[in-house]
Amino acid sequence: MSTVNGAPRLLARGIVKTFGAHRALKGVDLTVGDGEVVGLIGENGAGKSTILNIVSGVLPFDSGTLQLDGRDIAPKSYQDANRLGIFRVFQEAALIDSLPVYQNVFFGWEQLFRTRLGGLDHRALRRAAADALSKADVDGVGVDAPTGSLTPGQKQSLDIARVTALADLLEVARPVVLFDEPTTALDSEHEDNFLLLLKRLRGVAAVVFVSHRLQEIIESTDRITVFKDGESVADRPTAGIDENELHRLMVGRLRTENYYRENLQTEITAVEPRLTVEAVAGAGVLREATLQVAPGEILGLAGTEGSGKRVLGEIIAGAVRPSAGRVRLAGRDITDLPPAKRGIGVVVQSYALFPHMRVADARRQHHQQVVECFLRPRCPQFGGRLGEPRQRRGRDGQAVGGRRGGHAQDQAGVALRLGVAGQ
Fold this sequence. Notes:
Oligomer: single chain
Strand order of the largest sheet: 8-9-10-5-11-12
């Protein structure tokens, strides 16, 4: 491990953090040497994001030691952490959709682009943003484009570019960079660009890389730290380790050959398909998609950002018209029917449950509405008959089936979940 003055570049030792009666971190340790890439892994709730929140100034810690270059630190905000040379890509892209791309790149540090009269030097800001995107190999994103118009993958790539750009702007030659699941929303091209950036950072930055993709961790890191239930349970060199061993360290048991219980899975017998999609194309993305879903069957649809899986779901639901192909439900052609006439329920990618209620109250209210809808022939909460979701308008004016805050399912059991794999 490379060190500065005999100490790790970043050291967290015995860090404790509680939220009410819940102890999220129970004295965890994390060290990163100068120029080293450390993978941080663990199941959901293990404490990975919590320790990154503490290091990056988002949360205070209750007890323990946090040091940078051998000096105690306790950043009070993310900007404090930036001044110390600590930068982070958050799990969700931390961008403001209403701003153009160039203003998001250096958001919070606009004072460094002021004119002599105190105004914002937009020309200098645009130049710096364009240079940042170029260095991070982010193609196809204009600096004047509204950030809200970008895909999730482009937003994540922009967030990644911003980290290295801020380090350059603040003249931090050897930064500490925290990546919190940065590849989750990326397609293969953007993911490759990120992994190339990670290689460039090796040797010049101290990097913590959080990911659930274990093979990605193995291929990209020098050392791996494992968190489990708020504790640091292992710290190993990456060389010679494999996915099965990492899985054992994370969950406490080996992943067996029968992990997916294939012996308990049954083949669907030959029956008339409930849903049939025949050579469907649309939205300039999808080409000749064909599938069948039998009664009682659950079909998973996976793919990277931009692969067309979401468009296919929108076509089946009736929110997008196909340019070719047919959609049939129980043998009936529903291709040209409006969403409310199809008998197909949808849960869209972005939804919220009663945001102004306490969680317990929202859960009870939601459960009561769903039960009532299944017992009644008409369901006003979901726009009419069960399975006829009320339409709403997205920001681009496109009709989207489904009401926010609930779920719908037609009487015969056809339902769709539209979203990114892993969410």
